[in-house]
Write a structure and sequence with these properties.
The chain is built from six helices and five strands. With 144 residues, the protein is of the alpha/beta class. It has a single domain, classed as Protein tyrosine phosphatase superfamily (Protein-Tyrosine Phosphatase, Chain A), CATH 3.90.190. The protein has a five-stranded mixed beta sheet, sandwiched between helices. A hairpin with a 2-residue loop joins strand 1 and strand 2. The radius of gyration is 14 Å and the shape is globular. The chain starts with a strand and ends with a helix.
Length: 144
């Protein structure tokens, strides 16, 4: 079973899911899966279409929101993530290669409704110490 890291009561992240993980994710009470990994990033990963089918077979809602592999947030990441999460029943499990991109996207979105320092503390508690992210989140909040 894949390692699931809770970031809030309604959102968690994980590294790449395998075919066997979808039923286990549903059994843990998740209602939706959000795929943040672009197709073809690695030859061994499941395709978006395969993930969608496996999610449906497990009774999970599914949405793909591929994020490019970068340690900086694209300007529209929070808006796209918010729209995806709002369209899915909670709790949501988001995944990418390692879980880091999904955690970054969650952080950008969470800062819209929670204090930046609370979001940063949640990331740190989940062992996501992403260089420069805290400064970027603070800068975004200062200009919002």
């Amino acid at each position: 079973m894949v390692r699931i890291i809770s970031l809030s009561p309604t959102f968690a992240v994980a590294p790449q899911l395998t075919a066997d993980d979808f039923a286990a994710v549903a059994a843990q009470g998740f209602k939706s899966v959000l795929c943040n990994r672009p197709d073809g990033e690695h030859p061994d990963q499941l395709s978006t279409a395969e993930c969608a089918k496996l999610a449906a077979d497990a009774g999970l809602a599914f949405k793909a929101l591929p994020l490019v592999m970068a340690m900086v947030l694209e300007p529209d990441t929070s808006a796209k993530t918010r729209a995806a999460v709002d369209a899915l029943p909670a709790p949501v499990l988001a995944f990418c290669r390692s879980g880091t991109r999904s955690a970054m996207a969650w952080a950008a979105t969470a800062c819209q409704t929670e204090p930046v320092e609370t979001v940063i503390a949640s990331l740190k508690a989940a062992d996501f110490e992403i260089p420069g992210l805290a400064d970027e989140l603070r800068a975004r909040a200062a200009t919002a």
